[in-house]
Amino acid sequence: MLVRIVIADDHGVVRQGLRMFLGADPEIEIVGEARNGAEAVDLAVRLQPDVVLMDLLMPVMDGIQATAAVRRQAPGVEVLALTSVLEDRSVSDAVRAGAIGYLLKDTEAHELRRAIKAAAAGQVQLSPQAAERLLREVRTPERIAEPLTERETDVLRLLAQGKSNKEISQALNIGDQTVKSHVSHILDKLGVPSRTQAALYAIQNGLVNQPRP
Description:
Low-confidence stretches: none
Number of strands: 5
CATH architecture of the largest domain: 3-Layer(aba) Sandwich
CATH class of the largest domain: Alpha Beta
Helix content: 40-55%
Radius of gyration: 16 Å
CATH topology of the largest domain: Rossmann fold
């Protein structure tokens, strides 16, 4: 599967470096570059990439605001936060805004490529440390307006276990598009913008075991 991405970073050197080692992967296509959050939102809406690699500290519109705007205006586009600082507030703000993942700029090239492909596949990955941090910082709704169906609950449980869309479709013997439709309904019912927050809801409500550090 070819993964189409947009790189959003206000530093030209960073964009050049990302373009060099991501462009060498035949399974990744860089379809656009943004110098600020506003440009990132515009490209996400116009180009509909699979993933936006989003720096958090940018002019005009920062990465947190841009992530929220992308998730509102182009809900089919996943956002991977990319930053040089690991702080509780930054992690929680990025997830609240709708990021499916959170990466540091010192991430190894092969790990970044893997994370981009996983995000495109709809795979939520929460390390025990990240899950514990997010469970402290990010509260999910205790009550929802409309209960999840049995099948939606099955999908949510697998999503929270870090399964990709393809793995969920195989486990439940349903099509990929059906999985995406279920996920969309789950997010709407929970009132959250991202799979990551849906996974946190599943953990907080006992649908899957809570990770331990």
